[in-house]
Design a protein that fits this description.
The complex is a heterodimer of chains A (about 475) and B (about 425). Chain A has about 475 residues and is of the alpha/beta class. Helix content of chain A is about 25%, strand content about 20%. Chain A has 11 helices and 17 strands. In chain A, strands 1, 2, 3, 4, 5, 15, 16 and 17 form an 8-stranded mixed beta sheet that branches. In chain A, strands 8-10-11-12-13-14 form a 6-stranded mixed beta sheet, with helices on both faces. Chain A is globular. Chain A starts with a helix and ends in a 21-residue tail after the last strand. The longest helix of chain B is centred in the middle third of the chain and has 20 residues. Chain B is globular and about 70 Å long. In chain B, strands 1, 2, 3, 4, 5, 14, 15 and 16 form an 8-stranded mixed beta sheet that branches. In chain B, strand 8 and strand 9 form a beta hairpin. Chain B contains 13 helices and 16 strands. In chain B, about 30% of the residues lie in helices and about 20% in strands. Classes of the chains: A alpha/beta (about 475), B alpha/beta (about 425). At the A-B interface, helix 2, helix 7 and helix 9 of A face helix 10 and helix 13 of B.
């Protein structure tokens, strides 16, 4: 059950289940089997919030499949989207929510967040658990073990419509560790937020950060060529490791199993296609180098993060089917982001690629819609014709693809998980606020009801606003 | 890099002369002055100054007419709390002149020196409708430095010509967490040290001749620093205090009252909790309304509604951008404040006339009124909204280039994306 090759199958199967199904405990290993590796030792205990049958009626629906439906109806049942369309009849048994004059979109997905791992109050050193800068290769760390579910940033993001986030380790190392994908629901444990069946990612960092961190310590990498040598050495080791395990596997798992190595296990997971590469990489030339490295060692890069020069290699990225997660407005804080332009996402989109607007920030995560609007606005002025119905994908469907969960979330389509936001205005307007947010058909935020605000224990009894 | 500099020089030299007469006609003119909004108004600028604003203004025959029909016309935006002109790339130290760790230059540090009008950040800010800025010094700490003041802010103009508009528009000071750390680790230490310093400055002011003769006691600060603080203790130069916790705001207000200072508060995350007291003291507040997370123990009460609540209490507020490279987001910050309860007109005031008033510049900029300098922005939509953009920006009457290095980069790579058959991207 927990063998890696089955994880993806299990995930696919989950998509067809009711969201309230809990993951089943793993069967005990057969007595005669060699010690199997548990590929999911910190399993999700997420339970969908209580869901009733809800009909959102009369709103403008951006489905993130390319449609803008005026006077739309969205039916949610058993945690799933049951139907979406213009002026659908509402069957009996549904609670109707009046969405006239309002807009409806899929739940916002942030492909790049450090919430929980670098928690508020962020100025407190004890809350900075995001960057294990003790070695250029820390592929062995899993950021989920840094996540503090009481981070008030989760609340702020939920109140802004964010239903799913990928949490990444920092970019100080060549290999930063494993990412984790979380559902944005209040929980006392990380496991209670963990997106069931979502694949892991591996954070890799290009460019200035690793060479600055380790060059500053008088060790490699101190240069970009040192960075690349570091990646290549690690992949050579990972290939060797994977071969040893495959050999043991093919030999019927008889004899002594190779010794586990957490660092190499994660890298080998990438080589097997089970773990998705999430690559912090700003410059166009470095992205091209990383693509060559992935070919040299036989793995795929799922997403370039930040990727502010993606527009210079837009056709290459589209051809390689690599998503880019970027901003509209961030630039100039270091040399590798000197050439950032507002139209970056739009140019990648126009080239047929997968563009994502991400946050990397506890403030920006609360307005990915506005960041996308700024990108869209710039695109229009440059003569790039992209509709709102398409641009909505930048913070919904496309990050779902980048995170490997597009079969479950990211669009409003029958059968998808009912992660939905009701907005007060067009989400591309500065005045839009999330009014209600559903995760798997259960309401997790209602602006009109104080019970849905500020769940974090940290804020309890503090001087701040309590309602 | 050589190319980038060349572009900026080209822009500088192609800036049209300000002497020309320009008439902006047909737009909805949001004056931010006593004339309010004019549905179809005309703004006439001659010799760099506004000479007429109204619905029934005669357009001089010599005027170059700019048709703003269907568009919105506002004053140029004024960005408080920036370092425009002092920074290029944050991680490249030689391009960052925001701060010093020299021990004998603190209050005397003057952001009006070293300004670089060729900075690539300026066209980017201008494309966000920003025509003027308050360039503010920052702190550069080192472990052995006891530094209380960052230095003096300067008002600057963003038309690519000599930047300095007015020197010494405020003295910059951190209180709260950061100020306490610099003063030795406790808030009380900073409050005591400040009172002692102000007393020394007054003593020095009364005994300058004796000081020159070496007949005074030793002072803590350098002569240059004390000279710089004289207008502060005289209540002429505002003390711009960065502070967040409600209790710290009260301490700052008390300090100002007791020492006879003119205060401006900055950040003020928990300002809403003491809004009535801030209003009663007549102290304005600069804030970034989107900063709503409890990022430190002094910001536990941070909320998106801070701007609206301060304004409702009668506090004059100015809304800041998101620091230098992201200054263009200032108007979005104002829009977010409006989305969270601030009146839209008040939100626009918070990025135009209010910062002009707070820094003593309202006789020259901040509204569209006859006699003021000709900073005008024409928008193709609501200036607070992300989907709207300026279609024209005038500074001192001169039309500004609607380009930046970023748009040049865009235009270099755009054709290959839109017309891939014409060849691969370079």
């Amino acid at each position: 059950m927990r063998h890696a090759s089955l994880v993806l199958l299990a995930a696919t199967a989950l998509a067809g289940c009711a969201a309230s199904d809990r993951p089943q405990p793993a069967p005990a290993p057969a007595a005669d089997a060699a010690p199997a590796i548990d590929r999911d030792p910190y399993p999700s205990t997420y339970r969908a919030p209580a869901a009733d049958r809800v009909a959102l009626v009369g709103g403008t629906v951006l489905t993130a499949t390319g449609e803008e439906i005026a006077n739309g109806t969205v039916l949610m049942e058993d945690g799933k989207i049951a139907a979406v369309g213009a002026s659908l009849a509402v069957p009996g048994g549904y609670r109707t929510v009046d969405a006239r004059g309002k807009w409806v979109t899929p739940g916002v997905i942030d492909a790049h967040s450090h919430l929980g791992a670098w928690a508020q109050p962020e100025s407190v050193e004890a809350h900075n658990d995001v960057n294990e800068m003790t070695d250029p290769n820390t592929a062995q760390v899993w950021v989920e073990h840094s996540v503090w579910p009481q981070d008030p940033g989760f609340d702020a993001a939920r109140e802004a419509g964010v239903t799913t986030m990928m949490i990444l380790p920092g970019s100080g190392n060549l290999f930063g560790g494993r990412t984790v994908t979380l559902k944005n629901v209040p929980s006392v444990t990380m496991q209670g937020m963990k997106f069931p069946g979502a694949p892991y990612g591996l954070k890799i960092a290009c460019g200035e950060n690793p060479k600055r961190v380790y060059g500053g310590k008088g060790r490699s990498p101190a240069t970009r060529m040192g960075n690349v040598a570091g990646y290549r050495k690690a992949w050579i080791d990972a290939q060797d490791y994977a071969r040893r395990w495959d050999k043991w596997d093919k030999a019927g798992r008889s004899g002594e199993a190779p010794k586990r190595d957490l660092q190499l296990e994660t890298l080998a997971g990438v080589l097997r296609g089970e773990i998705l590469v999430q690559n912090h990489c700003y410059r166009a030339d470095e992205m091209a180098n990383m693509i060559d490295i992935s070919r040299e060692f036989g793995f795929r890069i799922r997403t370039f993060h930040h990727a502010n020069e993606a527009y210079k290699v837009a056709s290459l990225l589209a051809k390689e089917d690599i998503c880019i997660a970027t901003w509209a407005s961030w630039w100039g804080y270091k040399m590798e982001v000197f050439d950032a332009i507002e139209e970056n996402a739009a140019l990648v989109h126009a080239a047929g690629g997968c563009a994502i607007i991400h946050s990397d920030d506890p403030i920006v995560i609360q307005r990915l819609n506005q960041e996308a609007a700024a990108a869209l606005s710039a695109a229009w002025r440059a003569g790039i014709r992209i509709s709102k119905a398409d641009a909505i994908r930048w913070f919904t469907a496309n990050p779902a693809k980048a995170l490997g969960i597009a079969d479950r979330v990211g669009t409003i389509e029958a059968g998808k998980n009912a992660d939905v936001v009701l907005w007060s205005h067009d989400p591309f307007s500065i005045y839009a606020r999330a009014e209600k947010v559903w995760v798997d058909g259960g309401i997790v935020f209602d602006r009109a009801d104080a019970r849905y605000r500020r769940h974090s224990d940290f804020l309890l009894g503090q001087s701040g606003e309590t309602k | 890099m050589i190319r980038a500099v060349a572009i900026v020089l080209a822009l500088t030299f192609t800036t049209p002369a300000a002497a020309q007469t320009v008439a902006i006609t047909g737009g909805r003119v949001v004056t931010m002055g006593p004339a309010g909004e004019i549905e179809r108004g005309t703004v006439v600028i001659t010799g760099g100054r506004i000479v007429a604003v109204g619905a029934d203004v005669a357009v001089p025959p010599s005027a170059k007419i700019v048709d703003a029909t269907g568009k919105i016309v506002t004053p140029g935006l004024v960005a408080a709390g920036t370092a425009l002109g002092l920074i290029e790339v944050r991680a490249v130290e030689t391009t960052d002149d925001r701060a010093t760790d020299a021990s004998d230059v603190s209050a005397a540090f003057d952001a009006g020196y070293g300004l670089n009008p060729d900075s690539l950040l300026i066209p980017v800010a201008r494309l966000g409708g920003i025509t003027r800025a308050i360039t503010t010094p920052a702190y550069k700490d080192r472990s052995d430095r006891e530094l209380l003041f960052a230095g003096q802010a300067a008002a600057v103009v963003l038309d690519g010509r000599a930047m300095l508009m007015k020197r010494g528009v405020a003295m910059v000071l951190d209180m709260g967490d950061a100020g306490a750390e610099r003063a030795g680790g406790a808030r009380a230490a900073e409050l005591v040290a400040l009172r002692a310093l102000f007393a020394e400055v007054r003593d020095y002011r009364a005994r300058r001749a004796a000081y020159d003769r070496g007949e005074t006691r030793d002072y803590t600060l350098s002569r240059a620093d004390m000279d710089a603080l004289i207008p502060v203790v005289e209540g002429r130069m505002p003390l711009l205090v960065s502070v967040n916790r409600a209790a710290d705001i009260r301490d700052a207000l008390a300090l100002g009252r007791e020492e006879g200072l003119k205060l401006i508060l900055e950040s003020a995350s928990e300002g809403w909790r003491v809004a009535d007291e801030i209003a009663a003291a007549g102290v304005p507040v600069l804030l970034t309304p989107v900063e709503n997370t409890p990022a430190s123990f002094e910001m536990l009460g941070a909320t998106l509604t801070n701007a609206a609540r301060l304004a409702a209490a009668g506090v004059t507020i100015a809304i800041e951008g998101n620091d230098n490279h992201r200054e263009r987001e200032m108007r979005y910050n104002a829009g977010n404040a409006a989305a969270n309860g601030l009146d839209r007109q008040a939100a626009l005031a918070a990025i135009t006339i209010n910062p002009a008033r707070i820094f003593g510049l309202a006789d020259r900029i901040g509204s569209l009124e006859a006699g003021k300098e000709g900073d005008v922005v024409i928008w193709d939509g609501d200036p607070l909204d992300t989907l709207a953009r300026p279609t024209a920006v005038f500074i001192r009457g001169a039309a500004q280039p609607m380009t930046s290095r970023a748009t040049e980069l865009r235009d270099r790579y755009l054709p290959a994306v839109l017309h891939p058959s014409n060849g691969e991207t370079p």
